[in-house]
Design goal:
Blueprint: E1 8-10, E2 16-18, E3 39-41, E4 48-49, E5 53-62, E6 71-80, H1 88-106, E7 118-120, E8 128-132, H2 139-142, E9 175-177, E10 182-184, H3 188-204, H4 215-223, H5 239-248, H6 259-270
Antiparallel strand pairs: 1-2, 3-5, 4-5, 5-6, 6-8, 7-8, 9-10
């Protein structure tokens, strides 16, 4: 089934202007489609700009029935940045990744996972993902960091070069490796790498590759075998936590622990 899509995007003042032809994403499990007119931008520019996407703080006007007054809630609208929006093959490829993210996110129901509210058109050629707005921001903002972009937590085997292809998303449908001509699927080992990076960030207060500001430079450093956390940055981390976290971010995916091993380690630390 083809999802309804808008043919216009809005200028900051609310008037319509022509945009790139919106692309249909054939979602495996149809998410809630939020009408574009129900989403109101909070400002002229996006509020967060990572290496991969732009996040807009918006207001979603909801009306449960015709006789009830609409209520307004604050939401985050995540629009994947596409550097070559007229590249049909690239747009289609990224659309498939959005399709998978929406499918996986829709099936999650946990208190520690941000709720997926649905999709909305009008923020680019592909659907944007809508979730509740988190007032405290992301983890790196909590540490007063200006470096953003999920690419920092990606396992080296998940990286595809060149960066100019336009999108690098962890835990998404797959990434085409130019030299292989195939698609690399996300793995549990890649998730463990991301988890290890987050653990070290929590313990040290430093982002992976904190000295690099651009996603393409982070990609290049990762492929080049440069460690995400220099020894001096994690010198204050407790030895046991440090050793285990470094195992999680090993360049050799086979050396990383599995989920049960992590649970056992955490149980030992909390006892």
């Amino acid at each position: 089934m083809r999802n309804p899509i808008s043919q216009k995007s809005l200028k900051p003042n609310g008037t319509a202007q022509p945009s790139h032809q919106p692309q249909v994403v054939n979602f495996k499990k149809k998410p809630t489609i939020i009408p574009r007119k129900a989403i109101e931008k909070n400002g002229e520019f996006s509020n967060r700009n990572g290496g991969l996407a732009d996040v807009w703080m918006c207001f979603w006007r909801q009306k449960s029935s015709w006789h009830q007054k609409s209520r307004k809630c604050k939401v985050a609208v995540k629009s994947i940045r596409i550097l070559q929006a007229d590249d049909k093959e690239l747009v289609e490829k990224i659309g498939k990744r959005i399709r998978r993210e929406a499918y996986v996110w829709t099936n999650f129901n946990h208190g520690n996972i941000l709720k997926f509210l649905g999709i909305v058109e009008g923020f680019g050629p592909l659907p944007a993902l809508v979730s509740p707005w988190m007032e405290n921001g992301s983890l790196d903002l909590t540490f007063n960091s200006c470096h953003a972009g999920n690419v920092r937590w990606m396992a080296p085997e998940m990286l595809a070069m060149p960066v100019q292809e336009g999108l690098r998303m962890p835990e998404q449908e797959g990434m085409t490796m130019p030299e292989q001509g195939g698609v690399i699927k996300p793995t549990k080992a890649a998730d463990i790498y991301s988890y290890g990076c987050i653990m070290l960030q929590l313990f040290s207060g430093q982002l992976p590759y904190s000295w690099l500001k651009q996603a393409n430079l982070v990609n290049a450093a990762r492929v080049g075998g440069i460690e995400p956390f220099p020894a001096r940055q994690i010198a204050s981390v407790k030895d046991g936590h440090k050793r285990y976290s470094l195992r999680c971010i090993s360049n050799n995916s086979g050396d990383r622990p599995d989920v049960s091993g992590i649970m056992e380690f955490l149980d030992e630390q909390s006892s």
